[in-house]
Structures are given as structure tokens and as C-alpha cells.
């Protein structure tokens, strides 16, 4: 999508003339300001806004609403933060701030020049404020959302006069399925306007989209595209996610631009319609977990570009992939009987822990039976990963896996999200209506995460769907038959929720055909095998191991975040490791993690023998490390702290604790 510059011809004089005419209530001549700006001003007027701001004030989210929005968008926010910090470095001292907004225009996060941030806050450019066109008229965030395109709004182009001191550039961020997730914006003092800002903000949005894509599709088939072979594997590349039978199931903006496709192509086209390649032959030659070889690919218009097919671990390759049914055939055929695979996604979760093996074995017995699975266990033990493995190992593996997080959705949205809605069913609903996640799961698996957090009113509706196997969309209409395997998960004890009256007993029995509790990491006997597997996955092609110290720290840690925490710690350690390093030492653990590991080490049981107690051992080791570091740095606290990978304050605290 080319960036939309609202006023290519709007010199200051023309703009002033245009505003005067506009304020007088007249219609503007076509050539006075750019059509995009005129359209946005017209929308602003239709929203009942007056340029001088004599209109009802715009809403501001409460702290609770902001917290909910942040939780709901945590994947976006966590990928956006480092990019925003990077952009902020580029615009330092330029009277500007970097802002992230959600699809409703609510500001989620802002950082930047403090002096300017103060002034920006006075016009509510701060988290919680809503910058949709509906409330603020033409502005980069709201207009980028309205147009779904990159935009610059400079000075008096802002609809409201009070925002005329700003210059803003914004770029939409879309998820790999083409859904608008939010907007990245750089806003600054009008006088500090720089033409490169638009490029910066657009690059930032691309970087975030790239990360979101890698996150979602790393285990599947990814086709990387670029005009130059050296561009493959960089953040500037185009990315397509493909199903094994060649359907485009995801794309980043760069890929859509390279191929000249609209977002609606996602899920609607096979790759063979846009590139001259033989998917089946490529797959037959591929190896799971390996990157392909770059090759030149011909577009339908005859031009060439470079492509590389990377095959994730979960992809079926070899001759069987050649026979994979095409998507249109799948939709028309009944669900095939399961052919037991000797090594499947469930088997891949078995690293030797007995409780995990039992859960896998029990799940396997009901794979082809219509029995609802309820996965319980602490947060981060891998319930969603397990649910996906159940799906991929069962007879519905080729059909959709639809995950809904019942805790992340506000109560007002969950109903529409799950059950769908008819056009115009409620204020703010899309004009076309939506089928809802339950219908999208037809033929496949519906995964309801955090089912224990589902509001009671919604529980009644879900129960009806499960009993009748039919969905009635919001706003009425004919019931639609649905057929899906149900897998639910919760970190709560669902039985307790029933006893406390927060979860319906009849629904409890419906979702609990077979309950499996996944073990917490601290109780698993396969920690080292897990670490090994995770390191292999994080750094394919390298042989990494933990030092004896770190292995001991890990073994005694309580791991409150379970596998999620472990994988994050390892990811950071890998990033801190030298290019040729092979052993992860304490110095490679971020200081907060090291502190956490030391603080969380299993407490000393007074009855246990201090000589063999691992935590005593750990504390002694920590003290020994501190002593050695101080000696080798001749008492230089800053240097010792750096070598230990902890802050100076932490080092002082630890010295005080041991009475030094
Ligand atoms: N078997 C596994 N091997 C490697 N990593 C895993 C495994 N299981 C889970 N993980 C890691 O842990 C993360 C959390 O897993 P998952 O989302 O399935 O946990 P969860 O129990 O559903 O968490 P929550 O209750 O918070 O939703 C995953 O994103 C993945 O990084």
C-alpha cells in the first residue's frame, strides 16, 4: 500500500485558505487540499466535531480499562515495546514521542522526549486517551485507522485547531491474518517536522509485523520473499505462511506489496496462483526444521523475485505431502478416520516425565472420540501447546484449530467473538457481520483457554451450543449446525469455581469429558531433556549446554512461570551468548532472572542435611561467586556487579545479607 500523504499540494497558503472556507461552512474546491485530507475532514464533520473544539470532550479509558486493553493486546505491546524504544533512540531530542494505539484508537503505550511529552499530555497524547477520528477528527492515528494506510498529518491539517501544533506520522500494524491490530505513530512539535519520520514509523510497523509473523508461524511453512537474495531472512523480507496444500494462510504487509495482493487474498488464494512454483515438489524435497535453499521465483506478471521455503517442525513433508488434499476438497469431504502416526505432535511432548507421559497416553485414547478435554495446570505449563498437539495428532488435523482466550476478551466482546453476529447487530459491529469463532472451528477443534474466567451469562449460551450443536448469531437468524472437538483449559481449579458459584455445574460436566492435569515444571523429572530440546529449537544448528552452576540453579528453581518462563530465560541467555559460545553461564542470565532464581530456590528444610541441601549449596555458591568477583576486581563494586550479571544495588544488598 503506498503511503497516503494528505497534502502533497497543500502549501501553507492553500491550507489556510482551505480552513477559512471550511470554517465558513463552504465546500472546498477539489484542488485546494488532497482528496485524502478532504475525505477525512468530511468524516470529522459527520462525527459532529467543530474545528475550534467546541464539542463534547473525548472519552478517556479508566485505569482498569487500559489495563484490560493492555492484557488483551499483550502480544502486540510486547513486540512493539523494543521497536518503540529503537525508534525513540532515532528521534531523541527532536521534541517527539512514539505512540502505540489499538484499533479503536486508544493509546496503549507512549515514550519519548519528556519536555514534549508534557505538552503532548495536555492534548491527551498519553495512554488511555482515544484518538479515533470520531473523537479527534483528522489526526494521524485515527486517519491511519480509518484508511488502513500510512499517513502524515501536519499542523493545520489536523481537524481540531488545538492539535495544530503537532506533526504526526502513523502506520497501521496488521497481524499475519490481515487483521488490523493497531497503529504506530510518531508525534512531534510541528516545527520539528522531518520528512524521514514517515519512513521511520513505517519501518517500525514492519518490524513489529515481522516479529508477530515469526511468532505465529515459526512451526509451519514459511515462504520468505525479497527482491534481492541478501534480503531473505532480514526484517525487510516479505513473509507468507502456507498450508501444506499451498493455501496462503498468512502474510505480512511486505509480502502483500511484493506480490501486489490485497489483504483479502489471505485465506483465499493458493501460492500457485501468484507464483510459478510447484508446491508439492518443493515439499517432497523438504526436511522439517530446516531452511530451504533460496531460488528465483517467477511472478504471474513475468517478473522475478527471490524466495526461500522454510519448513517448521510440525510440517508433514515427503511423499505423503504430495497426496495432501487441497483446501476445497477438505471442505467438501467428511472427516477422515485417524491413521495413527508413529511420531506425532503429542509424542513430541514426551521428554520422559511420567506425569506428562500419562497425560499424553490418556489424551491419545480419546483422540478419535467425541469427548471434551479439560486441561488444567498452572499458567505456562503448556496447556495450549498440548491442545494444539491433540488437534494435530487427531483426525481433524487438517481442519482449523481455533483458540479463544476467554480471559483476554472484555465481557462485551466475547459474545460476538464466539457466537458471531449479523450485520448491524450492535453499535460498532462490522457492516458485514461475522461468523464467530465457534463456526470457524467447524470440522476442527475449538480451544477455549481460561474457560474458568468466562462470565456466567456467557456460560449459559455456551452450554446451549454444546447441547444443541448449533449456533445462533447475535442479532438473530437461522441456527447453524456446528461440529467441533472441544478442548478447554484453565489455570483455576474448575471444581472449586463450581463450588464457589462462579462456574455452572452443568457446563462443568459438559466441558469435562476427560480432565488432564499437566505437571508444573518444578515437579517434572525431565528438566534437562526439556532444556536440551528448547535450546535446539531456539538455536538450530548450534550445540549449546548449561554450565554446572546454571543447571543446579535451574534444578532448584521454583519456576512460577513454568515452561513459558524457562523458554524466555533460555531465549535471553542465547541472545547474550557470544556467537561462538557453547555454554550458558550465570553471566548469560539477565540480572533480574538470576536474582529471581536465587530468591526462588527451594527453601531450606530445617530437617534436611545442610551439606546435601541444594539451596544451601546454591547460597554458598552465590557467596563464593561474589567473593571471587570482588577479589578479582580488587573490590571495585561496579565491575564485580557487572561480572556477576547483577546490579550494584543487588550486590550491596547481598553483601549486607551475609553481613559483610
Ligand atoms: N512442550 C513444550 N516444549 C517447549 N516449549 C513449550 C512446551 N510447552 C509450552 N512451551 C512454552 O511455554 C509457553 C507457554 O505455553 P502455553 O501457552 O501452552 O501454556 P499455558 O499453560 O496454556 O499457559 P496459560 O495458562 O498462561 O495460558 C509456550 O509459548 C512455549 O514457549
Automatic annotation (TrEMBL):
Q: What are the recorded GO MF terms, alphabetically? A: ATP binding; sequence-specific DNA binding
For the Sigma-54 factor interaction domain, which residue ranges apply? 349-575
Could you name the domain of life of the organism this protein comes from?
Answer: Bacteria
Please name the SMART domains in this protein's record. AAA
Q: Which PROSITE patterns match?
A: SIGMA54_INTERACT_1, SIGMA54_INTERACT_2, SIGMA54_INTERACT_3, SIGMA54_INTERACT_4
Q: Which organism is it from?
A: Sphaerotilus mobilis
What the entry lists under PANTHER family is as follows: TRANSCRIPTIONAL REGULATORY PROTEIN (PTHR32071)
Protein name in the entry:
Transcriptional regulator of acetoin/glycerol metabolism
Note the InterPro entries from the entry.
AAA+_ATPase (IPR003593), AAA_lid_NorR (IPR058031), GAF (IPR003018), GAF-like_dom_sf (IPR029016), Homeodomain-like_sf (IPR009057), HTH_Fis (IPR002197), P-loop_NTPase (IPR027417), PAS (IPR000014)
One biological process term from GO is: regulation of DNA-templated transcription
**Alphabetic keyword roster:** ATP-binding, DNA-binding, Nucleotide-binding, Transcription, Transcription regulation
Amino acid at each position: 500500500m503506498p503511503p497516503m500523504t494528505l497534502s502533497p499540494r497543500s502549501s501553507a497558503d492553500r491550507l489556510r485558505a482551505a480552513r477559512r472556507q471550511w470554517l465558513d461552512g463552504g465546500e472546498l474546491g477539489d484542488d485546494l487540499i488532497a482528496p485524502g485530507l478532504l475525505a477525512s475532514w468530511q468524516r470529522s464533520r459527520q462525527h459532529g466535531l467543530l474545528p475550534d473544539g467546541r464539542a463534547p470532550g473525548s472519552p478517556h479509558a479508566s485505569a482498569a480499562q487500559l489495563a484490560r486493553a493492555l492484557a488483551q493486546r499483550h502480544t502486540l505491546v510486547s513486540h512493539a515495546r523494543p521497536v518503540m524504544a529503537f525508534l525513540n533512540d532515532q528521534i531523541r531530542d527532536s521534541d517527539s514521542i512514539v505512540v502505540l494505539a489499538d484499533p479503536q484508537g486508544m493509546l496503549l503505550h507512549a515514550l519519548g522526549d519528556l519536555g514534549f511529552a508534557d505538552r503532548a499530555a495536555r492534548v491527551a497524547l498519553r495512554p488511555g486517551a482515544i484518538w479515533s477520528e470520531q473523537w479527534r477528527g483528522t489526526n494521524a492515528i485515527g486517519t491511519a485507522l480509518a484508511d488502513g494506510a500510512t499517513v502524515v498529518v501536519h499542523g493545520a491539517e489536523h481537524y481540531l485547531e488545538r492539535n495544530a501544533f503537532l506533526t504526526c506520522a502513523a502506520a497501521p500494524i496488521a497481524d499475519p491474518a490481515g487483521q488490523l491490530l493497531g497503529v504506530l505513530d510518531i508525534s512531534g512539535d510541528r516545527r520539528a517536522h522531518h520528512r524521514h519520520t514517515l519512513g521511520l514509523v513505517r519501518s517500525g510497523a514492519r518490524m513489529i509485523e515481522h516479529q508477530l509473523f515469526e511468532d505465529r508461524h515459526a512451526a509451519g511453512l514459511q515462504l520468505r520473499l525479497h527482491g534481492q537474495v541478501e534480503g531473505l531472512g532480514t526484517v525487510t523480507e516479505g513473509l507468507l505462511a502456507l498450508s501444506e496444500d499451498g493455501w496462503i494462510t498468512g502474510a505480512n504487509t511486505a509480502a502483500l506489496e511484493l506480490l501486489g495482493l490485497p489483504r483479502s487474498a489471505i485465506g483465499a488464494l493458493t501460492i500457485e496462483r501468484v507464483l510459478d512454483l510447484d508446491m508439492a515438489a518443493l515439499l517432497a524435497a523438504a526436511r522439517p526444521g530446516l531452511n530451504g535453499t533460496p531460488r528465483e521465483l517467477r511472478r504471474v506478471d513475468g517478473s522475478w523475485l527471490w524466495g526461500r521455503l522454510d519448513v517448521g517442525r510440525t510440517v508433514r513433508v515427503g511423499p505423503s505431502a504430495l497426496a495432501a488434499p487441497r483446501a476445497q476438497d477438505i471442505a467438501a469431504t467428511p472427516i477422515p478416520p485417524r491413521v495413527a502416526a508413529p511420531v506425532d505432535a503429542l509424542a513430541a511432548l514426551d521428554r520422559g516425565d511420567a506425569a506428562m507421559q500419562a497425560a499424553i497416553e490418556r489424551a491419545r485414547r480419546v483422540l478419535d472420540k467425541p469427548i471434551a478435554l479439560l486441561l488444567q495446570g498452572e499458567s505456562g505449563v503448556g496447556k495450549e501447546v498440548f491442545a494444539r498437539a491433540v488437534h494435530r495428532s487427531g483426525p481433524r488435523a487438517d481442519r482449523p484449530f481455533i483458540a479463544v482466550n476467554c480471559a483476554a476478551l472484555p465481557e462485551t466482546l466475547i459474545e460476538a467473538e464466539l457466537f458471531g453476529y449479523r450485520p448491524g447487530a450492535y453499535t460498532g459491529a462490522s457492516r458485514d457481520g461475522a461468523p464467530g469463532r465457534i463456526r470457524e472451528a467447524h470440522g476442527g477443534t475449538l480451544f477455549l483457554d481460561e474457560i474458568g474466567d468466562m462470565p456466567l451469562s456467557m456460560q449459559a449460551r455456551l452450554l446451549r451450543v454444546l447441547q444443541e450443536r448449533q449456533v445462533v448469531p447475535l442479532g438473530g437468524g437461522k441456527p447453524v449446525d456446528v461440529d467441533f472437538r472441544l478442548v478447554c483449559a484453565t489455570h483455576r481449579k474448575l471444581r472449586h469455581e463450581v463450588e464457589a458459584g462462579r462456574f455452572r455445574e452443568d457446563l462443568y460436566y459438559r466441558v469435562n469429558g476427560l480432565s488432564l492435569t499437566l505437571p508444573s515444571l518444578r515437579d517434572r523429572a525431565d528438566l534437562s531433556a526439556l532444556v536440551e530440546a528448547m535450546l535446539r529449537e531456539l538455536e538450530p544448528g548450534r550445540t549449546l549446554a548449561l554450565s554446572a552452576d546454571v543447571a543446579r540453579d535451574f534444578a532448584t528453581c521454583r519456576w512460577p512461570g513454568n515452561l513459558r518462563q524457562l523458554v524466555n530465560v533460555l531465549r535471553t541467555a542465547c541472545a547474550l551468548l557470544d556467537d561462538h559460545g557453547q555454554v550458558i553461564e550465570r553471566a548469560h542470565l539477565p540480572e533480574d532472572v538470576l536474582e529471581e532464581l536465587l530468591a526462588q530456590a527451594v527453601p531450606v528444610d530445617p530437617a534436611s542435611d545442610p551439606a546435601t541441601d541444594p539451596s544451601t549449596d546454591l547460597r554458598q555458591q552465590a557467596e563464593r561467586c561474589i567473593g571471587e568477583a570482588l577479589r578479582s576486581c580488587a573490590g571495585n563494586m561496579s565491575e564485580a556487579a557487572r561480572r556477576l550479571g547483577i546490579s550494584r544495588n543487588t550486590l550491596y544488598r547481598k553483601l549486607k545479607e551475609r553481613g559483610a
